[in-house]
Design brief:
With 120 residues, this protein is mainly alpha-helical. It is built from five helices and two strands. The chain folds into two domains: 7-75, no CATH class; 79-119, no CATH class. It has helices at residues 7-27, 42-55, 68-75, 79-97, 112-119, and strands at residues 103-105, 108-110. The protein has a two-stranded antiparallel sheet. It comes from Bradyrhizobium barranii.
Length: 120
């Protein structure tokens, strides 16, 4: 299948395939890296990287140096994201010290897998 720039055409199949690949790679201790966006437009590279990040990728290879700054911006956590992760890790640690195996933070139950994601 040729990868069309139209996300609507590829979203369903890529979500299923990439989600499984990401999970399998991480289970094997391998950090998955998304394939490069090979077209020249930076906007398309950013859209592709944002979609990859939503799938769970934390990095993307690139072939065009002009994309580097924009892709770093997509994959670099914002201050709000870092604050949320800190709250999750601190809340879970506090619950564990009280002998509780999960913590409710901002109305969501946080358990070991989510905690480990934040602690990494």
């Amino acid at each position: 299948m040729i990868c069309a720039p139209n996300e609507a055409l590829t979203r369903s199949s890529w979500t299923t395939h990439a989600g499984g690949s990401i999970l399998e790679a991480r289970a094997a201790g391998i950090e998955p890296i998304d394939a490069p966006y090979t077209f020249s437009d930076v906007e398309g590279a950013v859209r592709g990287a944002a979609f990859s990040r939503r799938l769970g990728y934390r990095s993307k290879s690139l072939v065009r140096p002009a994309h580097a700054v924009a892709l770093n911006a997509v994959f670099t956590p914002s201050a709000d994201e870092l604050a949320r992760v800190s709250a999750i890790v601190e809340g879970f640690d506090a619950a564990r010290k009280r002998g509780i195996d999960r913590a409710q933070i901002d109305g969501l139950w946080i358990e070991v897998p989510t905690y480990r994601n934040g602690a990494d």
